[in-house]
Design goal:
With 196 residues, this protein is an alpha/beta fold. Helices cover 35% and strands 24% of the residues. The protein has one domain (27-193).
Length: 196
Protein backbone atom coordinates (compact mmCIF):
# COMPACT_ATOMS: atom_id res chain seq x y z
CA UNK A 1 0.00 0.00 0.00
CA UNK A 2 2.85 2.37 0.83
CA UNK A 3 4.47 1.66 -2.51
CA UNK A 4 1.20 2.46 -4.29
CA UNK A 5 0.81 5.78 -2.42
CA UNK A 6 4.44 6.66 -3.10
CA UNK A 7 3.99 5.84 -6.80
CA UNK A 8 0.87 8.01 -7.00
CA UNK A 9 2.73 10.94 -5.41
CA UNK A 10 5.60 10.57 -7.89
CA UNK A 11 3.16 10.46 -10.82
CA UNK A 12 1.37 13.58 -9.59
CA UNK A 13 4.65 15.46 -9.11
CA UNK A 14 6.29 14.38 -12.36
CA UNK A 15 3.25 14.54 -14.61
CA UNK A 16 1.07 17.48 -13.57
CA UNK A 17 -1.87 18.21 -15.81
CA UNK A 18 -2.70 21.68 -17.07
CA UNK A 19 -5.42 21.71 -14.41
CA UNK A 20 -2.91 21.13 -11.61
CA UNK A 21 -3.54 22.72 -8.25
CA UNK A 22 -0.80 24.76 -6.65
CA UNK A 23 -0.60 26.08 -3.14
CA UNK A 24 2.02 28.39 -1.76
CA UNK A 25 2.35 28.65 2.04
CA UNK A 26 4.58 31.76 1.98
CA UNK A 27 4.37 35.38 0.78
CA UNK A 28 5.21 36.12 -2.85
CA UNK A 29 6.83 39.45 -1.91
CA UNK A 30 9.88 40.08 0.23
CA UNK A 31 11.47 43.31 1.37
CA UNK A 32 14.96 43.68 -0.02
CA UNK A 33 17.95 45.52 1.41
CA UNK A 34 21.22 45.27 -0.52
CA UNK A 35 23.17 45.96 2.66
CA UNK A 36 21.99 42.60 4.03
CA UNK A 37 21.88 40.39 0.94
CA UNK A 38 23.16 40.08 -2.61
CA UNK A 39 21.67 42.36 -5.24
CA UNK A 40 21.37 39.50 -7.75
CA UNK A 41 19.63 36.25 -6.83
CA UNK A 42 19.58 33.21 -9.09
CA UNK A 43 16.24 31.49 -9.55
CA UNK A 44 17.04 27.89 -8.59
CA UNK A 45 16.36 25.14 -11.11
CA UNK A 46 16.32 27.50 -14.10
CA UNK A 47 18.79 28.00 -16.96
CA UNK A 48 20.63 30.95 -15.41
CA UNK A 49 17.60 33.17 -14.78
CA UNK A 50 18.28 35.80 -12.11
CA UNK A 51 16.34 38.49 -10.29
CA UNK A 52 17.58 41.82 -9.05
CA UNK A 53 16.02 44.96 -7.64
CA UNK A 54 16.11 48.45 -9.12
CA UNK A 55 17.07 50.02 -5.79
CA UNK A 56 19.04 49.04 -2.72
CA UNK A 57 15.93 49.21 -0.52
CA UNK A 58 13.02 47.86 -2.50
CA UNK A 59 10.54 45.01 -2.79
CA UNK A 60 10.85 41.92 -4.94
CA UNK A 61 9.01 38.71 -5.55
CA UNK A 62 10.34 35.72 -3.64
CA UNK A 63 12.47 33.51 -5.93
CA UNK A 64 10.40 30.45 -4.99
CA UNK A 65 7.30 32.24 -6.30
CA UNK A 66 9.13 33.27 -9.46
CA UNK A 67 10.33 29.69 -9.96
CA UNK A 68 6.76 28.39 -9.65
CA UNK A 69 5.52 31.07 -12.06
CA UNK A 70 8.27 30.20 -14.57
CA UNK A 71 7.45 26.50 -14.33
CA UNK A 72 3.75 27.15 -14.91
CA UNK A 73 4.53 29.53 -17.78
CA UNK A 74 6.87 27.01 -19.43
CA UNK A 75 4.32 24.23 -19.14
CA UNK A 76 1.48 26.33 -20.54
CA UNK A 77 3.69 27.83 -23.29
CA UNK A 78 4.71 24.30 -24.29
CA UNK A 79 1.06 23.22 -24.50
CA UNK A 80 -0.01 26.36 -26.39
CA UNK A 81 2.78 26.34 -28.97
CA UNK A 82 3.51 22.61 -29.24
CA UNK A 83 7.09 22.61 -27.91
CA UNK A 84 8.62 20.74 -24.99
CA UNK A 85 8.66 22.34 -21.55
CA UNK A 86 12.44 22.26 -21.56
CA UNK A 87 12.48 24.08 -24.92
CA UNK A 88 10.09 26.69 -23.53
CA UNK A 89 12.28 27.22 -20.46
CA UNK A 90 15.42 27.34 -22.65
CA UNK A 91 13.89 30.29 -24.52
CA UNK A 92 14.24 32.22 -21.23
CA UNK A 93 17.83 31.12 -20.54
CA UNK A 94 20.01 33.79 -18.92
CA UNK A 95 17.10 36.22 -18.44
CA UNK A 96 17.57 39.02 -15.90
CA UNK A 97 14.33 40.02 -14.17
CA UNK A 98 14.59 43.44 -12.55
CA UNK A 99 11.94 44.08 -9.88
CA UNK A 100 10.82 47.25 -8.12
CA UNK A 101 7.90 48.70 -6.20
CA UNK A 102 8.72 52.10 -7.70
CA UNK A 103 6.62 52.76 -10.84
CA UNK A 104 8.07 53.87 -14.17
CA UNK A 105 6.87 55.94 -17.09
CA UNK A 106 8.05 55.99 -20.68
CA UNK A 107 7.63 58.69 -23.36
CA UNK A 108 5.67 56.32 -25.65
CA UNK A 109 4.26 52.81 -25.67
CA UNK A 110 1.71 50.59 -27.39
CA UNK A 111 -1.46 49.22 -25.84
CA UNK A 112 -2.14 45.47 -26.14
CA UNK A 113 -4.50 46.31 -29.01
CA UNK A 114 -1.65 48.01 -30.90
CA UNK A 115 -2.65 51.63 -30.25
CA UNK A 116 0.35 53.97 -30.07
CA UNK A 117 0.33 56.04 -26.85
CA UNK A 118 2.44 59.18 -26.39
CA UNK A 119 3.28 61.37 -23.41
CA UNK A 120 4.27 60.08 -19.98
CA UNK A 121 2.86 56.57 -20.25
CA UNK A 122 2.76 54.62 -16.97
CA UNK A 123 4.00 51.05 -17.43
CA UNK A 124 3.96 48.05 -15.13
CA UNK A 125 6.64 46.19 -17.06
CA UNK A 126 9.17 46.60 -19.84
CA UNK A 127 11.16 44.33 -22.12
CA UNK A 128 14.39 46.34 -21.98
CA UNK A 129 16.24 44.09 -24.41
CA UNK A 130 16.26 40.40 -25.28
CA UNK A 131 17.97 39.51 -21.98
CA UNK A 132 16.48 42.01 -19.50
CA UNK A 133 12.97 42.79 -18.33
CA UNK A 134 11.65 45.13 -15.65
CA UNK A 135 8.53 44.27 -13.65
CA UNK A 136 6.76 46.49 -11.14
CA UNK A 137 5.86 44.85 -7.83
CA UNK A 138 2.45 46.52 -7.36
CA UNK A 139 0.84 43.94 -5.11
CA UNK A 140 1.95 40.81 -3.34
CA UNK A 141 0.83 38.65 -6.27
CA UNK A 142 2.79 37.76 -9.40
CA UNK A 143 -0.57 37.11 -11.10
CA UNK A 144 -1.37 40.84 -11.00
CA UNK A 145 2.08 41.86 -12.26
CA UNK A 146 3.30 42.04 -15.85
CA UNK A 147 5.84 39.22 -15.40
CA UNK A 148 4.10 36.74 -17.70
CA UNK A 149 3.48 39.46 -20.31
CA UNK A 150 7.17 40.38 -20.30
CA UNK A 151 8.19 36.72 -20.60
CA UNK A 152 6.18 36.58 -23.83
CA UNK A 153 7.99 39.68 -25.12
CA UNK A 154 11.31 38.05 -24.24
CA UNK A 155 10.56 34.89 -26.21
CA UNK A 156 9.30 36.88 -29.21
CA UNK A 157 12.42 39.10 -29.12
CA UNK A 158 14.71 36.08 -28.99
CA UNK A 159 12.87 34.49 -31.91
CA UNK A 160 12.55 37.68 -34.02
CA UNK A 161 16.12 38.81 -33.12
CA UNK A 162 15.41 42.49 -33.83
CA UNK A 163 12.28 43.29 -31.77
CA UNK A 164 9.84 42.01 -29.14
CA UNK A 165 6.72 43.03 -31.08
CA UNK A 166 6.05 46.20 -29.07
CA UNK A 167 2.60 46.77 -30.60
CA UNK A 168 1.36 43.37 -29.37
CA UNK A 169 -1.71 42.47 -31.46
CA UNK A 170 -1.21 45.51 -33.69
CA UNK A 171 -0.22 45.22 -37.35
CA UNK A 172 3.05 47.21 -37.40
CA UNK A 173 5.30 44.52 -35.87
CA UNK A 174 5.17 40.74 -36.16
CA UNK A 175 5.34 37.97 -33.59
CA UNK A 176 2.53 38.55 -31.09
CA UNK A 177 -0.76 36.74 -31.75
CA UNK A 178 -4.07 36.37 -29.96
CA UNK A 179 -2.70 33.01 -28.77
CA UNK A 180 -0.01 34.85 -26.79
CA UNK A 181 -2.65 37.03 -25.14
CA UNK A 182 -4.74 33.95 -24.27
CA UNK A 183 -1.63 32.31 -22.81
CA UNK A 184 -0.95 35.29 -20.54
CA UNK A 185 -4.54 35.34 -19.28
CA UNK A 186 -4.53 31.58 -18.66
CA UNK A 187 -1.19 31.58 -16.79
CA UNK A 188 -2.19 34.57 -14.66
CA UNK A 189 -5.47 32.82 -13.80
CA UNK A 190 -3.56 29.71 -12.70
CA UNK A 191 -1.24 31.90 -10.60
CA UNK A 192 -4.20 33.76 -9.10
CA UNK A 193 -5.95 30.50 -8.21
CA UNK A 194 -2.73 29.38 -6.54
CA UNK A 195 -2.50 32.66 -4.60
CA UNK A 196 0.80 33.52 -6.28
Amino acid sequence: MRLLKFSMIIVIILFPSSNACYYQPYSSVVEFDCMRSSLIEEVPGTPGIVTLTSNCKDYRFDVRSIKTALDIFSREYALQFNVSESAAMALLSGLRIELSAIPRTVPAAYSVEGIFLQGEVAVSGLALDRDNIWVEVRTSKISSSSLIHELVHTIIWRKNIVHADPDHEGKEFSGWTKEHTKLIKRVNKILLDADI
